[in-house]
What we know:
By secondary structure, the chain is of the alpha+beta class. It has one domain: Ribonuclease T2-like (Ribonuclease Rh, Chain A). Helix content is about 30%, strand content about 20%. The protein has eight helices and nine strands. The strands form three sheets. Strands 2, 3, 6, 7 and 8 form a five-stranded antiparallel β-sheet that branches. A two-stranded parallel sheet has the order 1-4. Strands 5-9 form a two-stranded antiparallel sheet. Strand 7 and strand 8 form a beta hairpin. Helix 1 crosses helix 2. The site of 2-acetamido-2-deoxy-beta-D-glucopyranose has 7 residues, from helix 6. InterPro entries: Ribonuclease_T2_eukaryotic, RNase_T2-like, RNase_T2-like_sf, RNase_T2_His_AS_1. Keywords: Disulfide bond, Endonuclease, Glycoprotein, Hydrolase, Lyase, Nuclease, Signal.
Amino acid sequence: MASLFARLLCIALTTMVAVGMLEANGIGIEIGSREVVGEFREFDYFALALQWPGTFCRQTRHCCSSNACCRGSNAPTEFTIHGLWPDYNDGTWPACCTREEFDEKEISTLHDALEKYWPSLSCGLPSTCHEKHGTCSFPVIWDEYNYFLTTLNVYFKYNVTRVLNEAGYVPSNAEKYPLGGIISAIQNAFGATPLLVCKKGAVEELRLCFYKDFKPRDCVMGSTGQSFVLSSSSSCPKYVSLPEHASSGIQSAETTISWVPGDEAL
Ligand SMILES: *[C@@H]1O[C@H](CO)[C@@H](O)[C@H](O)[C@H]1NC(C)=O
């Protein structure tokens, strides 16, 4: 049985690899080549990566108990946590910085919150590289418990779902929203520019970036000459959708694999 930890952290890698394989221009390819395994140089900033279940759950081809997309009417309806990633300013990031074994007991008191706000949205196999990103958070975060607790706290403090709802960007399978409007709403609320990742014209991921003291900073890197700078326009068209999660049961999930065609404007 996959440990809670494995589902929380390592799922990120497997799902991204899957995305990369499905879509040549997808983020998975870039992520694969931007990861610096075993890098011990101190990171530059944090990215809080949030997933939009309405988009992510469309990838569900089969169900399993670890996949929150399969919770029917209890499936998540707000942005959920994908991870808190220590990144470098040059667009790469460290992974697997220590060989420390993950101990699920250390975070047992956070179990319910993690199940709710940091669920897996796939049935991917856990990676054996434990705490891939989390182990690289030193010297800001030293241990497993504080890594998860800090991530939850940042997530609660910067409620992207609320900001978008209050700006009128509510989940819809019919509406398209201006990408610039979504970015502005986040900028106005948090004072920094987020990074959006889209799949077939739908918002799949939204990242908030933070200095090491967790003050918001821009995600998009300003300097030139970086081969892997991700900008919101790299995968999102000018008008994007924020699909509602069709709370299909396990049976019908099998039949909901096709994408709603999106405007691939860019
Ligand atoms: C975010 O805000 C929404 C809308 O106000 C609320 O329903 C939700 O519980 C909040 N999420 C968190 C994690 O606080």
